[in-house]
Structures are given as C-alpha cells and as structure tokens.
Please model this.
Amino acid sequence: MAAEVDLSDNMGNAARGLHMATMGGVWQAAVMGFGGVRRHDETLVLDPHLPAEWSSLSFALRFRGARLRITVRPASSTSR
Model:
C-alpha cells in the first residue's frame, strides 16, 4: 500500500516529488519483512522470507554503530 501512494499517484501529487514517509514504509517492508531483520536484545537477527522469484535482497543499515551491507539469498545470507 505504501508503494502505491507514489507509483499510482493516489494522492494526485506525485509529480511534485516523493513522499518520504512512504519510502520509509517500503524500506521497512523490504528489510524487516522480506529480509527478516529484527533486533532481539542486543543482537541483530535475520529470518528472511524471500519470494521464490527473487534471487537476492541487498540492503545497508547501521547497528550499534557498525555499518552493515547485508545480502540475503534463498539458501544463505552474508554480511560485510
């Protein structure tokens, strides 16, 4: 639903720019939903749920001051 706001111009104003809150919602859906990222106490946990059609999902984030680049694949995941 968040992506539809700008992609379908549901509010009639997408030509004047993007909705930052919408972009944040889409990022959260991808990273927390498909990427399965969550925090458990002081640990970052990954429990990905990639659609069968996807070969991978890559994203960057910061956790406890560290910059992470995470790539999730159907059979494995890596982080740098």
Observations:
- Residues 2-79 form a domain with the Maltose phosphorylase, domain 3 fold (CATH 2.60.420.10).
- The CA atoms of residues 7 and 64 lie 34 Å apart.
